[in-house]
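Name: AB hydrolase-1 domain-containing protein
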Amino acid sequence: MARATICSATPISSSFRHLKNLSNSSPPLHVTFRRSKTICATAMSDGKVSHPSLEVTGGARDKFLSGFKSLHNPYSPYPIVAGNCHIETIFSAFFRSVPDVRLRRECLRTKDDGSIALDWVSGDDRSLPPDSPLLILLPGLTGGSDDSYVRHMLLRARSRGWRVVVFNSRGCGDSPVTTPQFYSASFLGDMYEVVAHVSNRYPAANLYAIGWSLGANILVRYLGQESHSCLLSGAVSLCNPFNLVIADEDFHKGFNNVYDKALANSLRKIFKKHALLFEDMEGEFNISLAANAKTVREFDDGLTRVSFGFKSVDDYYSNSSSSDSITNVCTPLLCIQAANDPIAPARGIPRKDIEENSNCMLIVTPKGGHLGWVAGPEAPRGCPWTDPHVMDFLEYIEHYKSASAACASNQETMNNGVTERFQHLEV
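Structure predicted for AB hydrolase-1 domain-containing protein:
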């Protein structure tokens, strides 16, 4: 039977280009902190504290907290724009600046003859040393190198001397499609191949990754799957829906129906662009339903869940949720969420598992919407509030990773010297 897979139709998106209306203001948000499991203000090594406007928790909280330079500052959302989660989400998608970056595309051929587009910053091969830390960026659903949040993060990391590559999933970011297969929340095959490819290309570099929304879900599932064998030295998850069943429930409420229709429209466009590859599908596939889907759930029911062998859409969402992967994560992981995220609900965050994992840290901001975070010194059109904190974390991990490697190298040199001296002893 012919098989086809398509972009996951889970309720996560990095762009809302088809939205036309905004909702009325939502009521003020009140956040309560449980002192036994989260902190309102915790002292850092330099005497500073994390600000009480943030929820900071996780088993690695005390270990990583000293690496952040400005968590002692209050989270100050930009006036009016951040007054409503939907306005903030849509504003950031439409009006955030898109930095101009020259990229060089590499098309990676996968084992099943599929194609992945990797976008590197032009000139980095000549200007950066081979052991520069390397950062892989995973955009959200239908997202790619052109998205504003991706460009801002890319530029910030590049300005710190990091090598950066954007992982454009099949069919996204104008990535070529050569087989009847795209990607989904349950599909980790391409992630494995990208990490292996990048690692082989720059064997002297420490590898890191950042994922947004669906990209974050895929990244955390990869970390849990690889566990102790993971090739990444550190990772960051942003706006992760975590529990896709919960996210799907909220996706059909109120104004979220607008996102549902917009995403369904985007998925239909991606599908129709490559429709010839999906002709004559057999089995449970309902190509007509997918091609004319009015909701994300309809699209998943017609194509996605069948492609990956799931009995139902709920079965697909349940078995593709990254919330189940946290307990197996052995790589330093920072998760940043917004308490009012309309697409990645706060109630889906696996707080207990994050608190019990000594490798994980969670920061929850009181506002931010989905992929918004219109706050900080560069608001409203500059980078998201998260970007400088993400780099603080990554550079903290890289510093200790490099220091440990240098220490091991010095120990090896010392051991070789002792061995050499013993070889010259005369008895």
